[in-house]
């Protein structure tokens, strides 16, 4: 009898808890909501500008000749972990040349949610990359015991900028790091440049190196959320680079990096595998994730957008296929930039559209976050010690002290400014190929639907949610965020 009474009490308690939960988790509704439309468009002065306030009305069956966007809030997918960019040595060195006034403008432009576009992710490098004024190391060469380890180099430019970015963002940026190359003495080619491989006898030394870096940065008040094994592990570059086959990366994680982080009580630090282009990510996922001992240490996979260097289109579907095969693993876009800097193309609209196309597709295919490459470069697309000059969303002309905002900055902002941390992506589909779209439900109950038109004509479209709709117009070559 007592046992039955206890069961009844448990059942009643469960019902009460469920009722409370139901009250706090209200389903999304359009009732009483207005839509604020923000627009950026080519051949106009519209840049993240509020362009319309609309109301919902009763929906009717859309026609095939109409363009429509269908949002279904009850179908939820991944949780949003942020959008951001990389603070490289190059970015930090250029930032240091700006006036105090321009430095404040720049920080607000990226990291302030109200004054700017509200970046929440930050990537940085472990030792030098091509976007440094030169190659450098945290240790003296041949120091296999890491006794000379010091991040003093980073304290001159990079760490001060990271600290100011974190402060401007409200005290927190999800920060992760990646190495471009181990030291020359640890590698098969005895050079930090031009590929080479990590010699097996230095696997443990190199795993210890990550620990030294993480602890040194955390001592500076910069918590490290995660680290990737290696930036672009299949690319032999003229700059800092190191090659890992899928099997080599798997075994380094399984036998060295994962156990070393655990031993040093750094299991909280996430390990990101691959950190290279979408083309080979499925093979890398299959090799690493099907090994339980390696897989248990890996948070998920990072990927870049440069797979079209060898010809062909962006392989967006590969992200979806990794997500489909390994739904319990994370996905994070870790690098993309517009290559081959040309100052005549600062305002080339296609550069911004490249960002919009990638971000929408990557989120719709399951990525949780999206990280641009350099947040700032100079009027030459550098500094870069091997001449690999590129675009960034904002450039600084160090001869005039002025900041140059490119279309890419505004395209990124249509996502980062309106999608909040811990938002959840919901089902969003388009009926005509003229448009691209993605939607996220924020924790405060607002929906952010991003719509992109890459055609030469204005498009009028229906936004349809359940039995409600609104009719919206988007200019040619434009991006909009609808907040409702």
Characterise the protein shown here:
- Residues 422-482 form the Glycosyl hydrolase family 30 beta sandwich domain.
- Belongs to the glycosyl hydrolase 30 family.
- This is Glucosylceramidase.
- This protein is an alpha/beta fold.
- It is 30% helix and 26% strand.
- It has helices at 2-24, 89-96, 100-111, 152-156, 158-168, 203-219, 246-263, 281-289, 292-295, 316-325, 349-364, 407-416; strands at residues 34-41, 49-55, 57-58, 67-79, 82-86, 121-126, 174-179, 226-228, 270-277, 298-304, 330-335, 369-374, 377-378, 394-397, 402-405, 424-430, 435-441, 447-453, 459-465, 468-474, 478-483.
- The strands form three sheets. It has a ten-stranded mixed beta sheet, with helices on one face.
- Helix 2 (89-96) crosses helix 5 (158-168), helix 3 crosses helix 5 (158-168) and helix 11 runs parallel beside helix 12 (407-416).
Q: Which SSEs are present, and which pair or pack?
A:
Blueprint: H1 2-24, E1 34-41, E2 49-55, E3 57-58, E4 67-79, E5 82-86, H2 89-96, H3 100-111, E6 121-126, H4 152-156, H5 158-168, E7 174-179, H6 203-219, E8 226-228, H7 246-263, E9 270-277, H8 281-289, H9 292-295, E10 298-304, H10 316-325, E11 330-335, H11 349-364, E12 369-374, E13 377-378, E14 394-397, E15 402-405, H12 407-416, E16 424-430, E17 435-441, E18 447-453, E19 459-465, E20 468-474, E21 478-483
Helix pairs in contact: 2-5, 3-5, 6-7, 7-8, 11-12
Summed up, what is this model?
The chain has 484 residues and is of the alpha/beta class.
Outline, from the CA principal axes? globular
Mean pLDDT: 95
**Strand proportion:** 25-35%
Q: N-to-C terminal Cα separation, in Å?
A: 54 Å
List low-pLDDT spans: 1-24
Protein name: Glucosylceramidase
Signal peptide: 1-19
Pfam family, one: Glyco_hydro_30C
Family: Belongs to the glycosyl hydrolase 30 family.
């Amino acid at each position: 009898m007592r046992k039955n009474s206890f069961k009844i009490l448990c059942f009643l308690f469960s019902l009460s808890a469920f009722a409370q939960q139901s009250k706090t988790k209200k389903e999304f509704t359009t009732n009483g909501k207005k839509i604020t439309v923000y627009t950026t468009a080519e051949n106009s002065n519209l840049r993240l500008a509020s362009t319309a306030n609309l109301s919902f009305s009763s929906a009717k069956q859309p026609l095939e000749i109409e363009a429509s966007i269908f949002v279904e809030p009850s179908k939820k997918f991944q949780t949003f972990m942020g959008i951001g960019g990389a603070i490289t040595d190059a970015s930090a060195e250029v930032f240091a040349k700006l006036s105090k006034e321009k430095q404040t403008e720049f920080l607000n432009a990226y990291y302030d949610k109200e004054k700017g576009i509200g970046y929440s992710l930050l990537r940085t490098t472990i030792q030098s990359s091509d976007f440094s004024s030169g190659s450098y190391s945290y240790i003296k060469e041949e120091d296999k015991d890491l006794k000379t380890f010091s991040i003093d180099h980073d304290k001159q430019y990079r760490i001060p900028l990271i600290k100011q970015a974190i402060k401007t963002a409200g005290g927190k940026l999800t920060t992760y790091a990646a190495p471009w190359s181990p030291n020359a003495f640890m590698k098969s080619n005895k050079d930090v440049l031009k590929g080479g491989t990590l010699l097996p006898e230095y696997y443990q030394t190199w795993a210890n190196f990550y620990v030294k870096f993480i602890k040194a940065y955390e001592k500076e008040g910069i918590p490290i959320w995660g680290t990737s094994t290696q930036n672009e592990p299949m690319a032999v570059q003229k700059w800092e680079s190191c090659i890992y086959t899928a099997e080599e990366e798997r075994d380094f994680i399984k036998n060295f990096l994962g156990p070393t982080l655990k031993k040093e009580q750094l299991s909280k630090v996430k390990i990101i595998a691959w950190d290279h282009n979408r083309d080979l990510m499925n093979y890398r996922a299959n090799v690493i994730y099907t090994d339980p001992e390696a897989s248990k240490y890996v948070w998920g996979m990072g990927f870049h957008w440069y797979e079209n260097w060898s010809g062909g289109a962006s392989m967006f579907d590969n992200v979806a296929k990794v997500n489909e095969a390994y739904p319990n693993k994370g996905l994070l876009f870790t690098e993309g930039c517009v290559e081959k800097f040309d100052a005549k193309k600062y305002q080339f609209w296609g550069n911004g559209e490249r960002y919009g196309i990638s971000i929408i597709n990557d989120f719709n295919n399951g990525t949780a976050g999206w990280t641009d490459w350099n947040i700032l470069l100079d009027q030459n697309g550098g500094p870069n010690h091997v001449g690999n000059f590129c675009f960034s969303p904002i450039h600084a002309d160090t001869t005039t002290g002025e900041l140059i905002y490119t279309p890419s900055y505004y395209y990124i902002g249509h996502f980062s400014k309106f999608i909040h941390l811990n938002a959840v992506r919901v089902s969003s589909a388009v009926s005509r190929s003229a448009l691209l779209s993605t939607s996220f439900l924020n924790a405060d109950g607002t929906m952010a639907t991003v719509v992109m038109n890459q055609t030469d004509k204005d498009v009028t479209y229906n936004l349809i949610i359940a039995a409600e709709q609104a009719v919206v117009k988007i200019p040619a070559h434009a991006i909009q965020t609808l907040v409702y």
